[in-house]
Predict the 3D structure of the following.
Amino acid sequence: MSTRYVAFALGIALIAGIVVLGMNEPGTSPLATDSTLAGTIEIDGSSTVFPITQAVAEEFRKLHPDVQVPVGVSGTGGGFKRFVVGETHISNASRPIKPIEIDLAAEHEIEFIELSIGFDGLSVIANPSNDFLTCLTTDELLAIWKPGSDLNRWSEVRGGLPDSSFRLYGPDTDSGTFDYFTEAIVQQEDASRSDYSASADDNVLIRGVAGDKNALGYFGFAFYSSSPDKLKLIAVDSGSGCIYPSVQTINDGTYAPLSRPMFIYVNVAALERVEVVEFLNFYLDNATALIQEVGYVPLPETLYDEGRAILNASMEAAG
């Protein structure tokens, strides 16, 4: 059986605006009022996408309390390790699936579809007590984070900054955020200095940066948005001036190069289960409202329509 890889690839710079809609009323999809649904939908993967899928799961279970939807946070890479061998039905991802992961899925006869669900802007963060740093260039971020870098004082990063030390915090190597940051900043995926405090859990990184006056780190925009009083957002200059991540700059692509799409991957075999199909329809129907609620940037509604078309086509093919 060959792997079906349906790419719902989206260019951030081409997105012209956001269609802002409230959460759909129950009844949007045929089974939305069917409280007799039961079963377990296994989900794992990206900690960045976790808040979105968790919010969807919580709202879905209000309609279908007998459907269990545990959502793991083992990181994008950790989630794919489980997904490609058939352990999970849905995998949250903050990067596209890699060729080696596609090959592993094929070896285990796992067919899948990819659905884009929204946008994130990787955010560079310092401790609020830092009163001298407002912006870093991509060259400065490269100098700090590249493999073999031994920079550990601000004065080594840029003349005029204090001669005080800093400590680094960031995602671990199983994280799609790590993959994206290293590719965007270091220009080589997975290439990074290793002497930093790493975690697959963004909440651990938040606590680390919030509790360390010498901290500098990076993680998803929604995690900054959830604790703006505990963190300081640092602008990024990629050659066009210092730009802060925001709903507008992430959506229009001006927050470059750290704007990125987010995905869920679905095992096609799971589409034989009515509770999984209903959950996915509910996800797409309510993504706009829930993604904004947790601090990310939704897609235009027409692109969620494309996601529904991909889902329906896959159901028919699997039927």
Remarks:
- Residues 274-293 form the longest helix (20 residues).
- Residues 153 and 165 are 4 Å apart (CA to CA).
- The first strand starts at residue 5 and ends at 6.
